[in-house]
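Ticket #4471: structure output looks truncated?

Reporter: J.K.
Steps to reproduce: submitted the chain below (463 residues) through the standard prediction queue, then opened the result file.
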Amino acid sequence: MSIFKKVYILLVLVLPILSFCEDNSQFRILDIIAKKRDNIELTKNEINYFVQEYTENKIPDYQASSFLMAIFINSMTSDETAYLTDAMIHSGKVLSFDEISDPIVDKHSTGGVGDKTSLILAPICASLGLKIPMISGRGLGHTGGTLDKLESIDGFNVNQDTENFKQIVKDIGVCIIGQTKDIAPADKKLYALRDVSGSVESIPLIASSIMSKKMAEGLDVLVMDVKTGKGAFIKDYESSLKLATAMQNIGEKLNTKVIAIVSDMNQPLGMAVGNSLEIIECMQILKGECQKGQEDLRDLSFTLASQMLIAANITENEKDAIDKINRVINDGSAFEKFKEMVKTQNGNEKSLDDYSLLPTANFKYFLKATKSGFVNTLDAMKIALGSSILGSGRKTIEDEIDLSVGVIIYKKISDFVEDSDILLEIHYNDENKLKEALSFFENAYEIKDENVCSPALIKKILK
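Returned output as attached by the reporter:
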């Protein structure tokens, strides 16, 4: 066959086929829904088409809901999940830190009770040379939000435009803000639709939602803290492990290093649950003033930070990483880095030393044990629901919250208690809310004659 014939075949036969594959106008949403309904693997272009068209309001909610339900029922392959994540990443602005030579690293948690590790590990890692562009969320349902905790600090501004956000990261190494409209807008639309269409608990949809927002930050490394247990979004270990694995697979396919840690959330993390109370607890850890009951918070924060340092090639192993972390805690540089971030984001840094400047509840109530024995159960979900009733949480994203209320936990799993020992110190402003919350707090504890071991904090690390 002559060269001219080969070129002719290429032009007349092959190129139209290729352009058909690339041209979104050739796709029909009904065909894509049917393929997923029949459990046939979708192509990258088909998934791109769905995300682009739905983001631009060209696909109605009823068809998008059908597609999401088909995914919920039949799941997605690892390739499909990566394609979906990539399409959502590129539905908006993708940050670039090309002018920064230091590693760009972040951490994300799937959410829990008393989960405040970001506020500890971010200044630690920034003081050791990492750049941390952290886009965080607000509390919703039983889980607390990093932004709400930070807004306990008077004046702290979580609303930074993209350029200012990047400049703060470049200048001081860490900045924590809320999600902007131009970061992964497809995820925001799909997340809202999942919430009302019964397709929330889908591993591929959860994984792609989380990863699209984080990877739009332009990261080199992402460390995931996937919670499992009573106070977690996903309560059983096997499903939590599947989610961790799915997110790690996405990172591998999209050229971002992802470390996933599966950690326990059967009891609250640390001693404090409630926004301003959790800020105080974080300051205690950063100042090296860890108290009994806070060891799990410190240990998990240090483990997450050590994995960030190792993955970013700042240290070679965990021992070296922990040594460096302890150094910046002991010499005060981690606390000073947090203070610098607060000042840069217009917060009152004096409140980090003088806690009376933080929101403070008007009243305290001490819940006491009614028998002696060992704490066998401290139900994280019941503590969270009780705290939320006091006003620390919200049912919808528009709800106002009370930054001053919450609880201090005196006794945790495997602790021995005497009759009348204090279990909880409850900070409240409304007597009626306290009465309603007490039914949850009182039922959160199970005290028995036999002792049990505290649940293992770190279940698995996927590297």
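Triage note (M.O.): checked the attachment and the full token line is present. The CA atoms of residues 164 and 279 lie 24 Å apart.
Status: closed, working as intended.
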